[in-house]
Design a protein that fits this description.
Number of domains: 1
Number of helices: 1
Strand content: 35-45%
Radius of gyration: 14 Å
Order of helices and strands: EEEEEEH
Shape: globular
């Protein structure tokens, strides 16, 4: 199995693996990321759909093979009780964008 490309995720301030791009019916783009969180008791993996605006490409990575999917109207992370859930912030930002009727974000170009 090939290793997915690495991106920079703004909310964690570090690197994450990009597993897929997703587009919701409102035409907003999302990224399925996986990253590690470390702490005093070791580390754990985290996985979430996040707003594509919070993801940046890194030099030297090949993003051509990242799949693109059509998503359901509301995409939720598996553990909605986790206070560190970055999707909570992303969903709020998405709702605010729709409420303000701002232009739809462009498709990710990497």
């Amino acid at each position: 199995m090939p290793v997915p490309p690495v991106v920079r995720y703004r909310l964690t301030g570090g690197a994450a693996y990009l597993l897929a791009w997703g587009r919701r019916p409102d035409r907003s783009w999302w990224a399925l990321l996986v990253w590690l969180e470390t702490g005093g008791d070791g580390c754990r993996g985290a996985r979430a759909w996040v707003d594509a605006a919070d993801v940046r490409s890194l030099p030297g990575e090949d993003y051509k093979g990242v799949p693109r999917k059509e998503l359901a109207a509301e995409r939720r992370n598996r553990d909605r009780t986790d206070a560190r859930d970055p999707g909570r912030l992303s969903r709020a930002a998405d709702r605010a964008r729709r409420a303000a009727r701002l232009p739809v974000p462009a498709e990710p170009d990497f």
